[in-house]
Design the sequence.
């Protein structure tokens, strides 16, 4: 399966690279991912419709010319809207558009028809339970954009090439035993993120970091009632959590960027998460949290919020999420505002893990007050984990993970892990290796089981008492607790003295040589 997965990923990435031409990678990402999604929806529609029609002995391709086409299509649509969440006619399927565009080996004009099909997918859900999940999903696929080509024929030619190349790839959607296409889709999102520079942080968390967060919140769990990410980006973190347990019943998230919000919903559906099992909301989490989520409490919460983002605390005075702390996170740094929001949404028996810049560990003023409140008043902080610098796309700063639980097993202690020197450097980017991830998780798991002495590793981890943290005025800077100081080897003064004498002797010889050259040239010596 690994070979098949790698082959599919390579095929899709090759199409993306060879066909985008001079188009910016960010722009082409929206097109290639959108068309892969369209093919996925089409194939699912075709498979499901043929399953329904099997007793009648006809295929979906024949329905529109059938004598009872109207009744058949109406019945199939009702079933599809409930089961799949959307509906496509046989003539609107990806394979049909690809065939028409390339019929006779010509560049046949299909842009108008394609635009209508994408709009119809969204319109087919209106008035149904899935309307919110499919609404405006294709709004970033602007088929009139000059980025696709100067003329309408140029645009059409590029689109036909993309559809034709994708049509030649077997997505193996009928095989429900694997998630090859979902994984390949995630792979493409990651590849585009790697080349997107600073903007990548808006929609993607590196898989290695996602893995650490997912493993932390699922430690000791086999099933989760729900999982939540208040800054969900493309949804990679939510989906990563699902890979660590046998079952996640529901997925919830919020994302402020409309393009990324669309990408997240596509990603969910591409990973076979039924539309009834996820709810993603498009708004600013801090100022406009989802009204559907506000009264919910979650088993697991994971997040990689934008680092030290600006926000507007004046808009939410007396909000229950923040009022008990007595202070609001500063306008210029929303890091702790996200923490407070997540703590509010966390179930009493749940676990949350959030990636934050190192500054949250030691900055004073309002942030110091909030940090002290979480530890001294609530005793929610369970672990602090330092990550290497330069592992996130678009920023080289070192980061940390805070693990928070409302009902902690180790009520008098907090675990500190310094994993900042445990990584592999590949070109200009640092990566967590599997052994680095396992070491973090093994240390945290050992600590969680109460065997705290075994969780302490020289120059790597330390279990601090709450009294020690209070003595440090609730400063969580990891070097205060994990001593990573490396003693220098003692200096052999006798050897150094001998070396200096040898250097002096060499210099005397060199000076004499230079003086002799100067005498031969009839010039003064430089010393």
Sequence:
């Amino acid at each position: 399966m690994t070979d098949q997965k790698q082959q599919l990923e390579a095929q899709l990435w090759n199409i993306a690279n060879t066909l985008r031409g001079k188009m910016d990678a960010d722009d082409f990402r929206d097109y290639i991912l959108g068309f892969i999604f369209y093919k996925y929806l089409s194939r699912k529609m075709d498979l499901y419709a043929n399953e329904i029609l099997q007793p009648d002995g006809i295929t979906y391709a024949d329905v529109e010319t059938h004598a009872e086409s109207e009744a058949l299509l109406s019945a199939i649509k009702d079933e599809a809207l409930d089961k799949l969440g959307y509906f496509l006619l046989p003539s609107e399927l990806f394979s049909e558009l690809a065939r028409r565009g390339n019929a006779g080996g010509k560049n046949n004009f299909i842009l108008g028809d394609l635009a209508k099909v994408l709009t119809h997918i969204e319109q087919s859900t209106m008035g149904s339970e899935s309307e919110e999940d499919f609404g405006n999903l294709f709004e970033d696929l602007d088929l009139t954009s000059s980025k696709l080509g100067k003329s309408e024929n140029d645009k059409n030619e590029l689109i036909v090439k993309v559809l034709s190349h994708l049509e030649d790839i077997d997505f193996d959607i009928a095989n429900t035993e694997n998630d090859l296409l979902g994984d390949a889709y995630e792979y493409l999102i990651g590849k585009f993120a790697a080349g997107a520079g600073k903007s990548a942080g808006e929609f993607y968390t590196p898989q290695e970091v996602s893995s650490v967060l997912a493993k932390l919140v699922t430690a000791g769990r086999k099933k989760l009632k729900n999982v939540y990410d208040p800054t969900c980006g493309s949804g990679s973190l939510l989906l990563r959590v699902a890979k660590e347990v046998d079952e996640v019943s529901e997925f919830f998230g919020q994302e402020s960027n409309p393009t990324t919000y669309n990408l997240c919903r596509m990603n969910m559906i591409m990973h076979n998460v039924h539309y009834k099992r996820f709810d993603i909301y498009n708004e600013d989490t801090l100022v406009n949290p989802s009204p559907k989520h506000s009264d919910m409490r979650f088993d697991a919460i994971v997040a990689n919020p934008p680092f030290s983002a600006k926000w507007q605390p004046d808009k939410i005075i007396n909000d229950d999420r923040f009022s008990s702390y007595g202070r609001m996170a500063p306008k210029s740094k929303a890091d702790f505002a996200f923490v407070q929001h997540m703590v509010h949404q966390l179930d009493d028996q749940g676990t949350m893990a959030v990636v934050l810049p190192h500054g949250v560990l030691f900055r004073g003023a309002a942030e110091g007050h909030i940090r002290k409140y979480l530890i001294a008043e609530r005793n929610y902080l369970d672990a602090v984990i330092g990550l290497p610098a330069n592992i996130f796309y678009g920023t080289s700063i070192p980061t940390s993970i805070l693990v928070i639980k409302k009902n902690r097993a180790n009520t008098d202690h907090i675990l500190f892990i310094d994993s900042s020197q445990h990584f592999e450097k590949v070109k200009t980017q640092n990566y967590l290796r599997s052994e680095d991830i396992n070491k973090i998780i093994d240390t945290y798991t050992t600590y969680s089981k109460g065997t705290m002495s075994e969780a302490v590793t020289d120059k790597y981890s330390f279990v601090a008492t709450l009294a020690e943290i209070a003595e440090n005025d609730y400063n969580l800077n990891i070097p205060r607790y994990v001593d990573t100081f490396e003693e220098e080897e003692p200096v052999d003064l006798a050897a150094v003295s001998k070396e200096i004498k040898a250097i002096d002797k060499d210099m005397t010889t060199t000076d004499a040589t230079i003086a002799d050259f100067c005498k031969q040239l009839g010039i003064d010596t430089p010393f």
Q: What stands out?
A: Residues 253 and 494 are 66 Å apart (CA to CA). The first strand starts at residue 223 and ends at 229. The chain has three domains: 2-194, 199-480, 492-527.
